[in-house]
Specification:
By secondary structure, this protein is mostly beta strands. Among the domains are: 85 residues; 85 residues, Calycin beta-barrel core domain (Lipocalin, Beta Barrel), CATH 2.40.128; 90 residues, no CATH class. The protein has two helices and 25 strands. A hairpin with a 4-residue loop joins β19 and β20. The termini are far apart.
Length: 412
């Protein structure tokens, strides 16, 4: 019996030792899983009191809730893989099927206005960039500015002393235009504006604004014909001693653009004065369109106000006949139309000129050279009312004062 009790006590002691060893292992294991508190010196009282409590957090994590998906107050692509990304501003990428809010504007074909346009006696030069059109015309420093829409050009015109609105419409084939202008920017149209296109090339640049207008007043020797011009402002009028010739035009800078007319024809004329104002070159044509027909070159022999033109359509007196000219001897003249040619006895002299009314304006020349400065010059004769005598003047060369008188009496 005692033996059994001893055996029971030994067993109990052994079990107790085993249990104590097991508890010690568990304690050591738990101590290895706690955070290292050596830096803080010891486990705090709160950690000690909560050592056997499960870790709690206001935000569950994967470590203490392994079976729950991670939750967030802001869903993302990683935790909501089946939800599309949302944005307060839709874009083309997340709204591919949405059409634009406004359709594109309809494109209108704009006519090309670039080129040179003949507008009556005046040329207009236009240049176009996109829908903007600018240009100039040969009258009082004229300028054009506007915008083209389809076949219509709406804008403004301006000159030295006036300005206003303009509206032009180009033809379907682009070769002509019609339109209207007015002074100022309101009210009815004051007149029409019609032009024919003569070139589609880029036109020349306009002359500088407010360019000084050359003075054309004076007498000009144009071959065998004299031209007499008078200028008021930029308006130039005059006449020339052939077939009752007349000149009318407008000066812009050194250019004179206008018309000529005589007893049988008429047309356009264009002169350009030299820088020193002593000569001019130009062209003329019959009618108001087409190429120029010939050149017209002149030399200025006087800047004085010229004589008034003879009466319009004055009948030319017949200078044909033999004339006694005193020291010059006999002079023999023949007239064809307004042209007069002849000879005189002194040094085999020759006469050439044009008759206008009772006036014969021309040149004389003598042997041996028949040329200036000593053997040629100008003459001007005036026939008496009865046609039986004339008085006149002559000079060396084509400029300066008259050198002497030249009178004659009709012999037959």
């Amino acid at each position: 019996m005692l033996r059994n009790k001893s055996l029971l006590a030994f067993s109990i002691t052994l079990i107790a030792i085993l249990l104590l060893s097991l508890v010690g292992c568990i304690t050591i294991n738990q101590a290895g899983q706690q955070p290292d508190n050596e830096e803080s010196g010891a486990v705090t009282e709160q950690e000690s009191n909560q050592a056997n409590q499960p870790i709690q957090s206001t935000q569950p994590t994967q470590s203490n809730q392994p079976n729950q998906p991670i939750q967030s107050t802001q869903p993302t692509q990683s935790n909501q893989p089946n939800q599309p990304i949302q944005s307060t501003q839709p874009t083309q990428s997340n709204q591919p099927n949405q059409p634009p809010s406004q359709p594109p504007p309809t494109q209108t074909t704009i006519a090309n206005w670039t080129g040179t346009w003949q507008c009556g006696q005046i040329k207009m030069y236009l240049s176009q960039t996109g829908s903007q059109v600018t240009g100039w015309y040969e009258y009082q420093n004229g300028r054009i500015e506007g915008f083209a829409t389809g076949t219509t050009l709406v804008g403004t015109w301006s000159e030295t002393s006036n300005s206003g609105d303009i509206q032009l419409t180009i033809s379907a084939d682009g070769t002509s235009l019609t339109g209207y202008y007015r002074f100022g920017s309101s009210g009815d149209w004051d007149g029409s504006w019609s032009c024919t296109r003569t070139s589609t090339a880029q036109p020349p640049s306009p002359p500088p604004a407010q360019v000084t207008v050359a003075n054309w007043t004076g007498t000009w020797q144009c071959g065998q014909t004299k031209m007499y011009l008078s200028q008021t402002g930029n308006q130039v009028t005059g006449w020339y001693d052939s077939l009752n010739g007349k000149i009318e035009g407008f000066a812009t800078g050194t250019t004179l653009v206008g018309t000529w007319s005589d007893s049988s024809n008429s047309g356009d004329v264009q002169f350009t004065m030299s820088a020193d104002g002593t000569s001019s070159t130009g062209d003329y044509r019959f009618g108001s369109s087409g190429d120029w027909d010939a050149h017209w070159s002149c030399t200025r022999i006087s800047t004085a106000q010229p004589p008034s033109p003879p009466p319009a359509q004055a009948a030319a007196i017949n200078w044909t006949g033999t004339w006694d000219c005193g020291n010059w001897g006999k002079m023999y003249l023949i007239q064809t139309g307004s042209q007069v040619t002849g000879t005189y006895e002194y040094q085999n002299g020759k006469i050439e000129g044009f008759a206008t009314g009772t006036t014969l304006v021309g040149t004389w020349s003598e042997s041996p050279t028949y040329s200036p400065p000593d053997k040629a010059g100008d003459t001007q004769f005036t026939l008496s009312a009865d046609g039986n005598s004339f008085t006149g003047y002559w000079r060396y060369g084509s400029s300066g004062n008259w050198t002497g008188t030249w009178n004659g009496t009709r012999m037959q």
